Recover the amino acids of this structure.
């Protein structure tokens, strides 16, 4: 299981907040100092992170993991890695050849 990437969280929150930390704080019912704490590397509690995710329309996980760690391997019911499948695109003319 991966851990929370605080650097990724801070970068993504800065992307979402942009230049409007006061409006962001107001819209979410947070203090401005709390928003600045989050922008400087403090990860919020789950309920606050949930509100941020709801407000931005992004999943909570998006804030917590780096892009390269965002892909989670899938496993079979036996706990073995699931095979990955690659499907070739069919021809655009529909001929199937």
């Amino acid at each position: 299981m991966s851990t929370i990437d605080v650097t990724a969280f801070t970068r993504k929150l800065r992307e979402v907040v942009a230049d409007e930390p006061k409006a962001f704080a107001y819209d979410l019912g947070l203090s401005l100092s709390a928003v600045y704490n989050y922008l400087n590397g403090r990860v919020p509690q789950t309920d606050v992170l949930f509100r941020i995710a709801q407000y931005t329309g992004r999943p909570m996980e998006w804030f917590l993991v780096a892009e390269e760690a965002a892909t989670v391997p899938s496993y079979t019911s036996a706990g073995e890695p699931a095979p990955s499948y690659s499907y070739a695109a069919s021809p655009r003319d529909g001929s199937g050849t």
Notes: Residues 6-66 form a domain with the 434 Repressor (Amino-terminal Domain) fold (CATH 1.10.260).
